[in-house]
Amino acid sequence: MxxxxxxxxxLTLGLGAVVLAGLCVTAAFWQWNRFTAREAQIALVExxxxxxxxxxxxxxxxxxxVLADDDAWRPVTLTGAYRADATVLLRNRPVGGTPGFHVLVxxxxxxxxxxxxxxxxxxxxxxxxxxxxxxxxxxxxxxxxVTLRADEPSSSRGAPAGQVQAISTEQVLAAGPHGATWxxxxxxxxxxxxxxxxxxxxxSLTALPRPDLDPGSHLSYTFQWAVFAAGALGGYLLxxxxxxxxxxxxxxxxxxxxxxxPANGGAEPSTTHRPRRERRRRRTDEExxxxxxxxG
Length: 296
Prior knowledge:
single chain, 5-stranded mixed β-barrel
């Protein structure tokens, strides 16, 4: 017979179950917060991406302006000229599973601001360190329709000359052949993803994909962690009930045997005469414990 668990062991198991359940609940809330944040992002994209384009000055009226959170993914029109000589490549951003580079070109608008435009994608070249060719943007005055995005945080990772690891306006301009001095005081806190240009370029880049609207698995993970939390507590209660119930049943059997008295050899008790039952002394706790060990 397996020895019964002590009170300290039950307390230790209970504490472990509570801690495990608490960690699972924390993970469930974390996944729930990610789910709600993703839902809000999808709602913003659905509301803004298909809106009619407006002049960039309506959302970024002057140099130094920062894109409002509610205006992300809105399309705007830029009128001015590309600075093709300041083209920079964005590394490590595959499109459709294909490794390659995004082509980033500063755009000088007639309103006097400079906006970095992600014109599209080019695949890796023969040596994988750069593309084989980068088609230039249209020359002269251009009207470009772009989707506005907030600047990405600056990256601390290094990159070869003329390349960057993040679309941060400051870093993109600094990585160009002429540095960022020419655009000083004219930049904004946003960049644009190209939709189309007029006039069209001689050679088009691979267009950037539409925004991803997949909500992910955060909601299902939330429920999974909640189930794990319930399982931790439920498993402890089930174990406690199963083990302690066995002890209670054994003690009950012994008490029943004590009350029934010795067997009468199988003879049916007389219906006309019942001997007076002798008053018996109740067993002490020590005797009951010894009896339980003998039965085991």
